[in-house]
Design a protein that fits this description.
Largest interface: A-B, 106 and 77 residues
Number of strands of chain A: 25
Distance between the termini of chain B: 24 Å
Oligomer: heterodimer
Number of helices of chain A: 5
Radius of gyration of chain A: 22 Å
Strand content of chain A: 25-35%
Mean pLDDT of chain A: 81
Number of helices of chain B: 9
Largest sheet of chain B: 3 strands, antiparallel
Distance between the termini of chain A: 22 Å
Structural class of chain B: alpha+beta
Strand order of the largest sheet of chain B: 5-9-8
Strand order of the largest sheet of chain A: 1-2-25-24-23
Low-confidence stretches of chain B: 1-60, 77-85, 117-124, 176-195
Mean pLDDT of chain B: 66
Helix content of chain A: 10-25%
Low-confidence stretches of chain A: 1-5, 13-42, 78-88, 97-108, 405-409
C-alpha cells in the first residue's frame, strides 16, 4: 500500500513546489508545465477514492459532469470497497462467474459480470438495460435497489451477438443481434414479442427509436447504411446513406462502417460514421443536413467514434473507442467538453462503446476492455446557470472577494 | 559437418515446400502459389522424384549435392516469385478499412486546437471551461492526485496492444472476427479445427489476453528479461526448435496491470496487425519470410492442409508441447 501511494506524494510535492514558484501562471500554463505526473492509473488505489468529488471540468469552472457510480456486472454494491479483489480476477473467471469473496468469507457467490457490454437503454421504471455480446444476455439493473436480472439467450429470446439496445416509451426493449442480423423486440413484461429485419439487415449495430415519427433506425454496419423500419408494424421503409462508391470515397451520405445512431427532439438522426471518424446528421426524411469531425486525437476529433446520445439540452455525446474519451458537442458540432482517458479508474475508459443519456440526464457509458458501465450526471444549462447564480450570491454575500485558489495542492 | 547438416535441413525444407506446393496446386488452395508461372512450377515433378533418394546419399554424393543445390535454387526462385506475385494489395489487408490506410487504426496527432477555436496552444475552444486535460481524484484522506487525460493508451502501456484491437473487434465493426475456428490443424490420425474460438464473433473462447507470463511456464528454456525480450537457452532442444520454427511471438513488459510487474500476453503477442499474409521472423538468427494467415506473427499456413506450422506457432510459446521438447528432431515444419 505504501508503495502504491508513493507516486502521489511525489506528485503532491512537485505540485506544491510548482505552486509556490509560480502562483499566478500556474493555472494558465498548467498543461505545459505539468511535471511527469504518474499517469499510470493502476498505481492509484481504486478503493481509497472519494468518488463523490469527481467532476469535470476541474474547479474553479462550474461542474457540468459528475461521476455517480460504476457497475461491473450483477448486484454490484454502490461503493467500491471490493474492487481490489475484482481487479485481480482474470477475465476467464469472470466468464465462469467465479467471484473472489470480499472480507474473507467463504460464501461462494455466483454472479454474472460484464464481458463486452455495448447498447444501453432505460425504461420508465428507471431500470437500466445493457446488452452484452459476451454473456449473450441483457443485464437489467435496478440501480437503487442493487438488483440485477438477466434476460438470457435461450430463455427470454435467442441471441447471437447482441450489440445495440434501446427502450421506447412503451417500455418495449429492442435488442440488435449482429450475428443473426435481426432485432428482437421484448415487451414490458420481458416476453419476446417479435423479431424483425433479418431480410434487410446484414450486420447491424446501433438502434434508436423516433417516438414522434414512429421510426426505428437500425445502423447496418455490414451494409454500411441505416435501415428505417416502422415502429409499430416493423415494416422496412427505406435506407439512409450508403457504402462508399469506391475505395477511399468519403463523400457525404456515404458511410464507412457506421455503428450507432441517436434521434434528437426534432426527429433528426445523428449517425457515428465510425471508420470515417465523423458524425453525419440527417433529418427525419433521410435528407443529409451536415457532418462534423475528422480523424485525429485532438479535441473534437475522432478515432473510432461509437456510441452516440442526445442529452436534455440537445447536446451530442459521442464515445470514442480509441482515444478512450467521451466528447460533447453542441448542435452545430462544436466541441463543448470532453472527459476521460485510457484507464481503469472512475472517469477513465477502456474502449468505451455505448453511450446513453436518460430522461434524468444521467449518462451511461459501457466499456469493452474491462467490462464495465459507468454512470455520470450531466448538469443541464439551466442547472449550471442556477449554480452560477448561487455562486455569485455567495461571493457578494461574503465581503472579501474570493481569490478562487485552485484545488490542486 | 555443421554446414552439411544445415544444407540437408534446407534441402529437406525445399523438398517439403515442393510437395506442399504440388498438393496445394491440386487442391487449388494454397495462396502461396496462386500466381506461380507454369515455367517456375515445371521442375516440381522431377524434384519430387528425387525425394525417393535417401537423404544420407544426398550428403555423400557430390552429384546429388549439386543437383540438390540446383533444385534448391529453382525452388527458392519459385518461392520468391510466388511471394512477390501473391502481393496484389497492401500487406495491411483487411486492416486497410475502406482505403483509410494507417488511419484505420492510428489516430493522427491533430493538436490541441480541435474542431474550433483559434488558439492552438490552449484549450480555449471548449465552452464549458478550459481544463479538460486532467482529472483530479480526491482520496478518502483528503489528498488529491491529478491525472492527465492523455487519451489513448500509450504504446508503452501493454494494454495498448489489446485496447487498440478491441476498438474495432467488438463484434460490430468487424463482420468476421479473427480466430473463428476455421483453421485446421493436422494431428495424428486426422485434422481438427482449432478451438481458439467457438465460431461466433464475440471472442468468447479465445486465448486470454492481458495475462502475465509466469516464469517457468511451459518449461521455457530461457529467461524473460525486464523489457519483455527473451534470452533463449542454448540446449539442443531449444536450438532445434529455434532452427525449425523460430520464436515469433512478443511479450510486453509492464510495471502495472492486474498481475503487477511482469511480461504480458496481449493481442499483438501473436498477431502482427500490419501484415496479413507474410511473417518475417528469425529462425535461429536467420531471418525468413513465411506465409501466414489472420495476421499471425509467425509461419501459420492454414491454407496448406499438410502444414504443421499452425501448431508449431502455438508451441513457440507452449514449448513443452513440442516435438523438439520430447527430442523428436525429425519432424520438420512445413
Amino acid at each position: 500500500m505504501t508503495i502504491k501511494l508513493k507516486p502521489i506524494s511525489i506528485w503532491l510535492a512537485v505540485a506544491s513546489l510548482a505552486l509556490a514558484l509560480a502562483p499566478q501562471s500556474f493555472a494558465r500554463k498548467k498543461k505545459q508545465d505539468e511535471p511527469a505526473a504518474p499517469r499510470k492509473a493502476a498505481q492509484l488505489d481504486h478503493s481509497k477514492l472519494d468518488t463523490s468529488r469527481l467532476v469535470w471540468p476541474l474547479p474553479p469552472d462550474l461542474p457540468r459532469i459528475k461521476f455517480l457510480r460504476e457497475v461491473y456486472g450483477e448486484d454490484q454494491p454502490a461503493a467500491a470497497p471490493g474492487q481490489n479483489n475484482k481487479k485481480k480476477q482474470g477475465w476467464m473467471d469472470r466468464i465462469a462467474g467465479l467471484q473472489t469473496t470480499d472480507n474473507g468469507s467463504l460464501k461462494k457467490e455466483f454472479r454474472h459480470l460484464f464481458g463486452r457490454p455495448y447498447g444501453i437503454g432505460v425504461d420508465s421504471k428507471n431500470r437500466v438495460y445493457v446488452a452484452d455480446s459476451f454473456v449473450s444476455a441483457v443485464f437489467v439493473f435496478d440501480l437503487e435497489k442493487h438488483e440485477t436480472r438477466l434476460l438470457r439467450n435461450g430463455a427470454e429470446a435467442k441471441f447471437g451477438t447482441i450489440i445495440g439496445l434501446t427502450v421506447d416509451r412503451a417500455d418495449r426493449i429492442f435488442v440488435v443481434d449482429a450475428l443473426l442480423h435481426r432485432v428482437a423486440v421484448l415487451g414490458p413484461d420481458w416476453k419476446l414479442e417479435n423479431y424483425f429485419g433479418d431480410d434487410q439487415l446484414q450486420h447491424p449495430g446501433g438502434i434508436a427509436v423516433d417516438e414522434e415519427n414512429r421510426f426505428v433506425y437500425v445502423v447496418d454496419t455490414g451494409a454500411q447504411r441505416v435501415a428505417v423500419f416502422d415502429a409499430d408494424t416493423f415494416k422496412f421503409l427505406r435506407t439512409v446513406g450508403g457504402p462508399p462508391k469506391a475505395v477511399g470515397d468519403d463523400d457525404a451520405e456515404t458511410f464507412s462502417k457506421p455503428s450507432n445512431v441517436a434521434v434528437d427532439s426534432e426527429g433528426c438522426i445523428y449517425v457515428t460514421d465510425t471508420m470515417n471518424n465523423r458524425v453525419q446528421v440527417f433529418d427525419g426524411d433521410g435528407k443529409f443536413i451536415m457532418m462534423f469531425g475528422k480523424s485525429g486525437d485532438g479535441p473534437g476529433d475522432f478515432a473510432r467514434p461509437k456510441g452516440i446520445a442526445i442529452d436534455g439540452d440537445s447536446h451530442i455525446w459521442v464515445a470514442d473507442a480509441f482515444t478512450n474519451r467521451v466528447q460533447i458537442f453542441d448542435r452545430e458540432g462544436h466541441l463543448l467538453a470532453f472527459f476521460g482517458t485510457g484507464g481503469d479508474l472512475p472517469g477513465q475508459f477502456g474502449v468505451p462503446s455505448g453511450v446513453y443519456v436518460d430522461r434524468q440526464n444521467r449518462v451511461f457509458v459501457t466499456e469493452q476492455l474491462r467490462g464495465r458501465m459507468q454512470v455520470f450526471r450531466y448538469f443541464t444549462d439551466a442547472e449550471a446557470q442556477a449554480m452560477k447564480d448561487e455562486r455569485a450570491k455567495k461571493t457578494t454575500a461574503s465581503a472579501a472577494p474570493a481569490a478562487q485558489p485552485r484545488e490542486t495542492k | 559437418m555443421i554446414a552439411d547438416y544445415t544444407m540437408r535441413r534446407r534441402t529437406e525444407f525445399a523438398i517439403e515446400m515442393a510437395s506442399a506446393i504440388t498438393v496445394a496446386e491440386k487442391s487449388g488452395g494454397l495462396r502461396l502459389c496462386q500466381h506461380v508461372h507454369s515455367e517456375a512450377a515445371l521442375p516440381l515433378p522431377e524434384f519430387n522424384r528425387s525425394t525417393e533418394t535417401p537423404v544420407s546419399n544426398l550428403r555423400r554424393s557430390d552429384d546429388h549435392m549439386k543437383k540438390a543445390m540446383f533444385i534448391l535454387f529453382v525452388m527458392l526462385f519459385a518461392i520468391g516469385m510466388a511471394s512477390a506475385q501473391q502481393l496484389t494489395g497492401d500487406i495491411l489487408g483487411p486492416h486497410d478499412v475502406n482505403g483509410h490506410g494507417c488511419a484505420s487504426c492510428h489516430a493522427p496527432h491533430t493538436g490541441a486546437q480541435g474542431n474550433r477555436g483559434t488558439n492552438a496552444g490552449a484549450g480555449e475552444n471548449y465552452l464549458w471551461g478550459r481544463d479538460f486535460y486532467a482529472t483530479t481524484y480526491t482520496f478518502n484522506d483528503g489528498s488529491t492526485a491529478t491525472i492527465t487525460n492523455s487519451g489513448a493508451f500509450a504504446a508503452t502501456d501493454t494494454l495498448f496492444h489489446t485496447a487498440a484491437c478491441l476498438s474495432c473487434h467488438d463484434g460490430n465493426q468487424t463482420q468476421v472476427q479473427g480466430m473463428t475456428g476455421l483453421s485446421v490443424e493436422t494431428v495424428e490420425g486426422g485434422s481438427v479445427t482449432t478451438y481458439l474460438n467457438d465460431g461466433s464473433e464475440s471472442l468468447k473462447n479465445d486465448h486470454p489476453v492481458h495475462t502475465v507470463y509466469t516464469p517457468g511456464g511451459f518449461n521455457w528454456p530461457g529467461t524473460v528479461n525486464a523489457d519483455g525480450s527473451i534470452t533463449w537457452g542454448t540446449d539442443a532442444d531449444t536450438t532445434e526448435f529455434q532452427k525449425n520454427y523460430g520464436r515469433p511471438f512478443r511479450l510486453y513488459a509492464s510495471t502495472s496491470g492486474p498481475e503487477g510487474v511482469g511480461s504480458y500476453v496481449e493481442c499483438t503477442t501473436c498477431h502482427n496487425p500490419h501484415s496479413v499474409n507474410y511473417s518475417k521472423s528469425k529462425y535461429l538468427g536467420v531471418t525468413q519470410v513465411k506465409p501466414t494467415n489472420f495476421f499471425v506473427r509467425g509461419w501459420y499456413n492454414t491454407d496448406n492442409p499438410n502444414s504443421n506450422s499452425g501448431q508449431q506457432f502455438c508451441r513457440s510459446c507452449h514449448y513443452s508441447k513440442s516435438n523438439e521438447y520430447v527430442q523428436h528432431y525429425g519432424i520438420i515444419t512445413k
